[in-house]
Amino acid sequence: MNVVALIGHLTRPAEQRVLPSADRPIELQVTTARESARAETVPVVWFDPPASAANLDVDETVVVVGRVRRRFFRAGGATQSRTEVVATSVVPARLARRARRIMAHAFAVADEAAEVELTAPVG
User: What is the pTM of this model?
Assistant: First the structure.
């Protein structure tokens, strides 16, 4: 199972890309604070976002739910990789009710999947 939930602020404006497939994902950089440790910045890609996603701007606090993926690509004659979060939902934290709803859904899915894994017969 692969479920991620992040709460952090955007460190740069949302950036829309146009891929050769004609997909138009939004790329975000979400920085999460850690108690008594350095903050961590996480690259997030959001496929099929609503039009309002392009309005997300620097310092906005967001809640992100999705999955982790590592992708490989060729650049400069070498194979490189990038680990990122593929978002299924991104909600500004100021929309507290919606943000709580997507977090609750993510935790329910994770809990259900863990229950299935823990009760499955081994071997």
Answer: 0.81
Q: Could you report the per-residue pLDDT of 38-84, keeping only the tens digit for each?
A: 999 999 999 989 988 888 989 999 999 999 999 888 888 898 888 99
Whether residue 120 is predicted with pLDDT greater than 70 in this model: the reply is no
Domain boundaries, the chain: 4-119
Given 3-state DSSP classes, what are the helix, strand and coil percentages for the chain, each rounded to the nearest 5? 25, 45, 30
> Which of these CATH numbers, 3.60.10.10, 3.40.50.970, 2.40.128.50, 2.40.50.140, describes 4-119?
2.40.50.140
The contacts found for 29-36 with CB under 8 angstroms, 24 or more apart, are 30/6, 30/62, 30/64, 30/85, 32/6, 32/7, 32/8, 33/8
